[in-house]
UniProtKB/TrEMBL annotation:
<comment type="similarity">
    <text>Belongs to the GTP-binding SRP family. SRP54 subfamily.</text>
</comment>
<dbReference type="GO" id="GO:0005525">
    <property type="term" value="F:GTP binding"/>
</dbReference>
<keyword id="KW-0694">RNA-binding</keyword>
<protein>
    <recommendedName>
        <fullName>Signal recognition particle protein</fullName>
        <ecNumber>3.6.5.4</ecNumber>
    </recommendedName>
</protein>
<dbReference type="GO" id="GO:0003924">
    <property type="term" value="F:GTPase activity"/>
</dbReference>
<dbReference type="GO" id="GO:0048500">
    <property type="term" value="C:signal recognition particle"/>
</dbReference>
<keyword id="KW-0687">Ribonucleoprotein</keyword>
<keyword id="KW-0378">Hydrolase</keyword>
<feature type="binding site">
    <location>
        <begin position="247"/>
        <end position="250"/>
    </location>
    <ligand>
        <name>GTP</name>
    </ligand>
</feature>
<dbReference type="GO" id="GO:0006614">
    <property type="term" value="P:SRP-dependent cotranslational protein targeting to membrane"/>
</dbReference>
<keyword id="KW-0733">Signal recognition particle</keyword>
<keyword id="KW-0342">GTP-binding</keyword>
<dbReference type="GO" id="GO:0008312">
    <property type="term" value="F:7S RNA binding"/>
</dbReference>
<feature type="domain" description="SRP54-type proteins GTP-binding">
    <location>
        <begin position="268"/>
        <end position="281"/>
    </location>
</feature>
<keyword id="KW-0963">Cytoplasm</keyword>
<feature type="binding site">
    <location>
        <begin position="189"/>
        <end position="193"/>
    </location>
    <ligand>
        <name>GTP</name>
    </ligand>
</feature>
<feature type="binding site">
    <location>
        <begin position="107"/>
        <end position="114"/>
    </location>
    <ligand>
        <name>GTP</name>
    </ligand>
</feature>
Length: 295
């Protein structure tokens, strides 16, 4: 993940470290390299521009230029600004609701919603929560069965919906069931189309109104690069998202989405998907990610 970006930035770092003295020109050259590296990693252009402007301003300040090791000081600025870009703090899942706390999963088909629902259920079960999975994906053949199978393998309960039911009816029945059986958390998986369409957005909006989720997570495939951010923005305009899950960061994704999502959508990345397996979910730590990128 992010190997290319990391490699290129390390090259810049090496050059900076090698300079006994730094001038504004040195810094401008280094920033040009950083800019190229970020663009190649599919970081969105407005994000790159803001980032570079911010780093440049700080790096050309007296504090950095007059420091004992200016190269190191610039690297520190890049690290801090990368961390800030991704949201600084880890944003935890918020389950502070009158039980059952509802987590609504949104995203395009194939983004990893069903897999991520199961991963979250596993995580919460590990925290001794009584978790119910449910699916209203009545359009994709076998989606509900996929969730039921995953739930069974995790020994987590799954609401018994089927593809002949209407999504809103499934939602209402799930809520009723979860209340009567005292579940702590319901993870509600929804249908995802291949692209954003009005019918899909209208449906998930209605589900949102009915379920009143405390968390509405947008699941997006990091391999989509720039499109990941555009889709996140489109969903964010329809739904009050509370966070993003970036999946498939184990693949050969260039990873730019990780750096752009927060800045463009204003929503924190809460988790990253790092494998197909049910244990392949990690909390997202901006600082650690920045360190990983800078090597
Ligand atoms: P949905 O249509 O959004 O419900 O997507 P699925 O959960 O069915 O996932 C689509 C495909 O992506 C499946 O083959 C999953 O195994 C795979 N997948 C999901 N998350 C990850 C991940 O973090 N890493 C990898 N490598 N594969 C993933």
């Amino acid at each position: 993940m992010l190997e290319n970006l990391s490699g290129r930035l390390q090259q810049v770092i090496k050059t900076l470290r090698g300079q006994a003295r730094l001038t504004e020109d040195n810094i401008s050259d280094a920033m040009r390299e950083v800019r190229m590296a970020l663009l190649e990693a599919d970081v969105a252009l407005p994000v790159v521009k803001d980032f570079i402007a911010q780093v440049k301003e700080r790096a050309q300040g007296r504090e950095v230029l007059q420091s004992l090791s200016p190269g190191q000081a610039v690297i520190q600025v890049v690290h801090e600004e990368l961390t800030r870009l991704m949201g600084e703090q880890n944003s935890e899942l918020n389950l502070a609701a009158v039980p059952p706390a509802i987590v609504l999963m949104a995203g395009l088909q194939g983004s990893g919603k069903t897999t991520t629902s199961a991963k979250l259920a596993r995580l919460l079960k590990g925290q001794k929560k009584k978790v119910l999975l449910a699916s209203a994906d009545v359009y994709r053949p076998a989606a509900i069965e996929q969730l039921k199978t995953l739930a069974a393998s995790l020994e987590v309960d799954c609401f018994d919906s089927n593809a002949t039911q209407k999504p809103l009816d499934i939602a209402a029945a799930t809520l009723d069931y979860a209340r009567r059986h005292y579940y702590d958390v319901v993870i509600f998986d929804t249908a995802g189309r291949l692209g954003i369409d009005e019918a899909m957005m209208a449906e998930i909006s209605k589900l949102h109104t009915l379920l009143k989720p405390i968390e509405t997570l947008f699941v997006v495939d990091a391999m989509q690069g720039q499109d990941a951010v555009n889709t996140a923005r489109a969903f964010g305009e329809t739904l009050p998202l509370t966070g993003v899950v970036l999946t498939k960061l184990d693949g050969d994704a260039r990873g730019g989405a990780a750096l752009s999502v927060r800045h463009i959508t204003g929503k924190p990345i809460k988790f990253i998907g790092v494998s197909e397996k049910v244990d392949g979910l990690e909390p997202f730590h901006p600082e650690r990610m920045a360190s990983r990128v800078l090597g």
